[in-house]
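User: Sequence recovery, please. Input:
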């Protein structure tokens, strides 16, 4: 039983640790918020989205959904245009400005976090190609133990990542770090949008 938990934890950390759009956005919001609690909408949304993707992979739902080519086109098309807008919002935002405050609204936080989580091609392929396949090594209660172990990593990671961003952001009295972080986040988001456009054109 312990080896199953360790397998799930190691696999979860291996997939979630690399810096990506989702991680950057969670960290960014932690750094931008006036309090840690204000970052919780992003943290909870990212955690719930990862949980749903993991469940979909383990239960085989994600494979069935991606079998419909028109649905893939719809997801990539919507994701492309939304990520362009999201990147533009972050690029223009400045610490303490109205634009920055608009990005901090809970509704936008949730929408943005859901988009970078659910429309992230790398996240989808990780869950289907790695977590889903690894889960086939187990059955019944063992498979659920493995699944919960992977999910636990996501929840702990996002809570910790936002807190790290918040602590670093508090040391940025002049807002220089946050301003640069917003631009780095915007570039990563535009990079993801470009990747989705390439996939869309294939």
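Assistant: Recovered sequence (202 residues):
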């Amino acid at each position: 039983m312990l080896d199953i938990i360790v397998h799930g934890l190691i696999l979860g950390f291996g997939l979630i640790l690399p810096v990506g759009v989702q991680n950057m956005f969670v960290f960014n919001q932690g750094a931008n918020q006036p309090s840690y609690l204000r970052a919780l909408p992003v943290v909870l949304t990212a955690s719930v989205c990862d949980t749903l993707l993991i469940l979909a992979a383990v239960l085989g739902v994600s494979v069935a959904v991606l079998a419909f080519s028109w649905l893939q086109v719809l997801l990539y098309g919507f994701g492309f245009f939304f990520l362009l807008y999201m990147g533009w919002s972050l690029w223009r935002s400045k610490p303490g400005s109205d634009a920055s405050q608009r990005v901090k609204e809970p509704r936008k936080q949730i929408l943005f976090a859901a988009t970078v989580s659910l429309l992230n091609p790398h996240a989808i392929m990780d869950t289907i190609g790695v977590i889903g396949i690894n889960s086939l090594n187990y059955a019944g209660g063992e498979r659920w133990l493995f699944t919960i172990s992977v999910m636990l990593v996501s929840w702990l990671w996002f809570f910790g990542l936002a807190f790290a961003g918040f602590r670093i952001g508090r040391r940025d009295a002049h807002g220089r770090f946050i301003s640069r972080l917003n631009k780095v986040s915007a570039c990563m988001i535009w990079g993801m949008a470009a990747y989705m456009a390439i996939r869309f054109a294939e």
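DSSP finds ten helices and no strands in the chain.
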